[in-house]
Amino acid sequence: MRVLVSVINQALKISQVNALKKISDDGFKAELSAKSDFDVSQTRVYLRVLCDKLDKDLIVIFDEADSLKERLILSLLAQLRVGYVERTEAPFPRAVALIGTRGVRYCQAEIRTDSET
User: Fold this and answer.
1) Per residue in 19-31, pLDDT tens?
2) Among 86, 64, 65, which residue's Cα sits nearest to residue 75?
3) Are 105 and 71 in contact (CB under 8 A)?
4) pLDDT tens digit string along 45-85?
5) Are 41 and 76 in contact, with CB atoms under 8 Å apart?
6) CA angle at 24 for the pair 56 and 47, rounded to the nearest 5°
7) Residue 12: CB atoms within 10 Å
8) DSSP state of 95
């Protein structure tokens, strides 16, 4: 997940949108590190803090998401699910697209508890 967050941050730095470029500075990294749940849920926390900084809705596209190892894609999907469920309490992207050649539906059963299926 640390690599995924780093890749997103790198994309912000080369973005043509000035608001996104400003966000990827050292102060932003310090703010992330101060979050108590950052080590466990890096991607979700990163997206929340990012959305909180923006004055517009954010749409995120993860290309080749299926290239992540199974454990990592399960973690990513779980973090996206929690972020989506809690979006009324904390900012989160308006939409997230996972692009790849393999389906990620097989992971759903492993993320949800018995009461949610």
Assistant:
1) 666 676 656 666 6
2) 65
3) no
4) 888 888 888 888 989 888 887 777 777 888 888 899 999 99
5) no
6) 55
7) 18
8) E
- What residue has token string 């466990």? 40
Kind plus residue range of the DSSP H or E element containing 98: strand 95-98
Report yes or no: 91 and 52 within 8 Å, Cβ to Cβ.
yes
User: What is the Cα–Cα distance from 67 to 45, expressed in whole angstroms?
Assistant: 22
Q: Provide the whole-model pTM.
A: 0.71
Angle at 90 between CA 84 and CA 93, to 5 degrees: 50
Q: What is the dihedral of CA 100, 104, 106, 108, to 10 degrees?
A: 180
Which residues, 6 or more positions from 8, have their beta carbon under 8 angstroms from its beta carbon?
Answer: 46, 50, 60
